[in-house]
Amino acid sequence: MSSTPSPTATDEISWVLTPLLELPGVLHAVIATGDGLVEGASDGLERASAERVAAMTATVHAAARAFTAAFTDVERPRLAQTVVESDLGYAVVVPAGENTSLAVFTSPDAQLGNVAYQMQLQVAALGRALASPTRRPDDDVRS
């Protein structure tokens, strides 16, 4: 089995992951829908693993929102990020637009401030790209 996820139409947004994967300590990255589907994944992550990560990203994000709501009595708090620390490294999840999350997994020695900053830059870039209308070939022709 190949270690590269099979290409899909949504892999067109995987360019968002490239700058993150170039950061020291970042091992994997996934773009996931709110219902746990893969929209893009780093090449080194097998398809089955990317699908599990996407499903868990949705679950962790929902749990973090519920956890925050339980403490604050705010029905739908807006999350900035969710971080899970383990002996193997850090999993960081950030909202990436409507019904989308960006998740990365880093080594224990990664600079989380740099990772979080780059994640926010990539989320902003993704938002701009998705908001831009698709160009049609005849848009270049002026009458």
Describe this structure in words.
It is built from 3 helices and 5 strands, in the order H-E-E-H-E-E-E-H. With 143 residues, the chain is of the alpha+beta class. It has a 5-stranded antiparallel β-sheet, sandwiched between helices. Strand 3 (82-86) and strand 4 form a beta hairpin. The protein is globular, with a radius of gyration of 16 Å. The protein starts with 17 loop residues before the first helix and ends in a 12-residue tail after the last helix. The model is unreliable at 1-10 (pLDDT under 50).
Key attributes of the depicted protein:
35% helix, five-stranded antiparallel sheet, alpha+beta, 143 residues, disordered N terminus
What distance lies between the first and last C-alpha atoms, to the nearest angstrom? 52 Å
How many strands, which pairing sense, and closed or not: the largest β-sheet? Answer: 5 strands, antiparallel
- Structural class by sheet pairing and helices: alpha+beta
Number of helices: 3
Amount of helix:
25-40%
Strand content: 15-25%
General shape: globular
Order of helices and strands: HEEHEEEH
Q: Strand order within the widest sheet? A: 2-1-5-4-3
Low-confidence stretches: 1-10
The residue-averaged pLDDT reads 85
Q: How many E strands?
A: 5
Rg over CA atoms, rounded to whole Å, is 16 Å
Task: Describe the structure concisely.
With 143 residues, the chain is of the alpha+beta class.
Ordered list of secondary-structure elements with their pairings:
Blueprint (H helix, E strand, L loop, with lengths): L17 H4 L4 E8 L4 E4 L5 H26 L9 E5 L2 E7 L4 E7 L5 H20 L12
Antiparallel strand pairs: 1-2, 1-5, 3-4, 4-5
